[in-house]
């Protein structure tokens, strides 16, 4: 699968809010997920290594939500081994109230699998 094909698959599934399928099917076993340094102030781990740990991080995020009011994913931009999307979410969290989140996600694809993701917000 080319990077553009992976980007298109990611976009299709993200628009359906189906991140579990994205991670199950398309993440490499040794995937690395990187959050910005300031995420540590919210108690988040900056670097998460391994598919099961990244999936657990996603599950913890979903569990922290009370209501997902809306979410969107921009069409991807791809070049070389990388693609990026803009992710927007309107969420009410159990302990923080309602917030609007916007982030850029950059993903690296090698041998048809996502080997890294990094978020900027």
Automatic annotation (TrEMBL):
Superkingdom of source: Bacteria
One Pfam family named in its UniProt record: SnoaL_5
SnoaL-like domain boundaries: 1-121
InterPro entries the record matches: NTF2-like_dom_sf, SnoaL_5
Name of the molecule in the record: Nuclear transport factor 2 family protein
């Amino acid at each position: 699968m080319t990077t553009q094909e992976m980007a298109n698959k990611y976009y299709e599934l993200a628009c359906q809010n189906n991140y579990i399928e994205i991670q199950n099917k398309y993440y490499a076993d040794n995937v690395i997920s990187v959050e910005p340094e300031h995420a540590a102030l919210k108690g988040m781990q900056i670097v998460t290594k391994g598919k099961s740990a990244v999936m657990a991080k996603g599950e913890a995020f979903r569990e922290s939500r009370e209501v997902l009011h809306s979410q969107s994913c921009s069409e991807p931009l791809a070049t070389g081994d990388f693609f990026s999307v803009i992710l927007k979410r309107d969420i009410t969290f159990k302990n923080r109230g309602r917030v609007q989140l916007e982030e850029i996600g950059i993903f690296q694809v090698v041998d048809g699998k996502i080997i890294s993701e990094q978020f900027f917000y």
